[in-house]
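sanity check this chain:
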Amino acid sequence: MNLLLQVLPIAAPTLGWVTHALVLARRLRTARTDPLTGLMRREEFTSRARRAIRHPDAAVLLLDLNGFKQINDTHGHAVGDQVIAAVGRRLSVWCRERGGFAARLGGDEFTAVVRLAPDADPDAELTYGLSARLSAPLDTDAATLSPRASIGLCRVGHRPGAGLPELLRGADEAMYTAKRLGQHWRPAGPVDVYATTNGRRAGRPGTHLILLPAVRRKAS
């Protein structure tokens, strides 16, 4: 008992600091994580992606769900949240299997960095891999839905020396083209196609461009 009384004045401050450190770590983790999907947020993604794209097999993806506004309008935002959460989980698993990671940019927009070997079949990876996985039937509170996304892919090897903003821009243009053509995905070309004005894609209303850390805004 005497020994316990002697130890308590020393242990109590230590325990307090440990508890405080755990609380701070939890808050930091929460600040870096999207609460709905569990994916990292934009700032954390930017930091990790800048390192990840140094690998020659790295590829940057941008995803945007198709018809998401209609899901919200028809079934309500609670169901929309279930769709976003499920897409985040499915995307995260697919990315981890390819040595990568994903983030939610906001709304129904996602981005990711993965590694794809030079001889990998991109159509098998994205059409029959990622796209099929994302659109698997999902039972929600209101209905069974099949989320579908337009995907843009920009490989580091196709744009030597490009930084993260340039790779994201290429993926963004490819994603927009896939959405316009009704395709599952599109690869980015070796150079950008659309002109920009003040960091935003020039063209008809509704076009958009992503440049981290400032992220594109989607026209619904």
About this structure: Strands lie at 58-65, 101-106, 109-115, 138-139, 144-145, 149-155, 185-187, 196-197, 200-201.
